[in-house]
Amino acid sequence: MTTKTLKASATGSAILPALFAVILGLGIITLAGHVQASALHDAAHDVRHATGFPCH
Known about the structure:
The chain is mostly helical. It has a domain at 18-56. The protein has helices at 10-34, 37-51. This is CbtB-domain containing protein. InterPro entries: CbtB_put.
């Protein structure tokens, strides 16, 4: 009886998260570049309140 062991490729498993990070980063930069400054300020302000960080 013989047993075969399959080895996962380290390169293949590392490319997918890196590719996802690049696509997510480019999406965030693109959206932030096209939104109005007041909307970005309001969103950051709301996140500060939601995390309990004092901003006033």
